[in-house]
Design goal:
- The protein has six helices and eight strands, in the order βββαβααβαββαβα.
- The protein is of the alpha/beta class.
- The mean pLDDT is about 95.
């Protein structure tokens, strides 16, 4: 269904990505999909294909520039070496701008590391219209979440050892303080419960989070 494309970042550099789109509708609303720490693998391409099946033009930026891994230690190394500010303000903003050349509206969805980048995008990618973050958020020093003005949706795992519930609740408090238009949902599950190829997959939680995400985008993008 999808294909690899090249698009421009705001700084003029090229970025590659996987684009899945509904047949015959090149003006369909867009969604930027952000990878987990594994890279641009078949699982995340599958998420884009699924969104294309729902009528969206879905674009996954290749943040690791071609590198993909199934090894957690290597994934951690790749994630640690990723310049998050550059990824958000250049790669992801470029992807959003690319979609908005044809799409009237564009959203952003990300998982794990991509969830953190989704919240960053809500702060630093003004072209986006709605943001859905699955079990991930950036550290406090990355920016002031109270400045977010577009609809933000958050999915948290009650048994998340990576992005702990305490930190998630602190984030909710900050968003409330800033009157950010957000909604948050909690799931009795572990980190990465939505990845059907992973060990923490929780079909019930994943199904519910997916329904909430697609309802959210239908409301704000269609």
């Amino acid at each position: 269904m999808g294909q690899m494309i090249t698009f421009k970042r705001p700084d003029g550099a090229d970025c590659n990505g996987y684009l899945a789109a509904p047949a015959g509708n090149d003006k369909a609303p867009g969604i930027v999909v952000i990878q987990e720490w594994w890279g641009l693998n078949d699982q995340i391409k599958g998420v884009a294909d699924r969104l294309a099946g729902l009528g969206y033009r879905a674009l996954v930026s290749d943040l690791y520039k071609g590198k993909v891994t199934v090894d957690a230690a290597e994934a951690n190394h790749l994630m640690t070496n990723l310049n998050f500010a550059d990824a958000a303000t250049q790669d992801l903003r470029g992807a959003t701008q690319y979609l908005k050349q044809k799409s009237a509206k564009a959203g952003v969805v990300g998982f794990c590391m991509g969830g953190a980048l989704t919240v960053l995008a809500a702060m630093y990618v003004p072209e986006g219209d709605a943001y859905s973050s699955w079990y991930g958020f950036p550290p406090d020093e990355a920016g002031d979440v109270k400045t977010i003005r577009k609809p933000l949706q958050l999915h948290f795992a009650e048994e998340d050892a990576f992005f702990t519930p305490d930190r998630a609740r602190a984030l909710e408090a900050k968003l409330r303080e800033g009157n950010v238009p957000f909604e948050s949902y909690w799931y009795k599950a572990g980190h990465a419960f939505g990845n059907e190829s992973g060990q923490s997959y929780n079909p019930e939680a994943a199904k519910l989070a997916w329904e909430r995400t697609t309802d959210f985008f239908a409301k704000h993008l269609k």
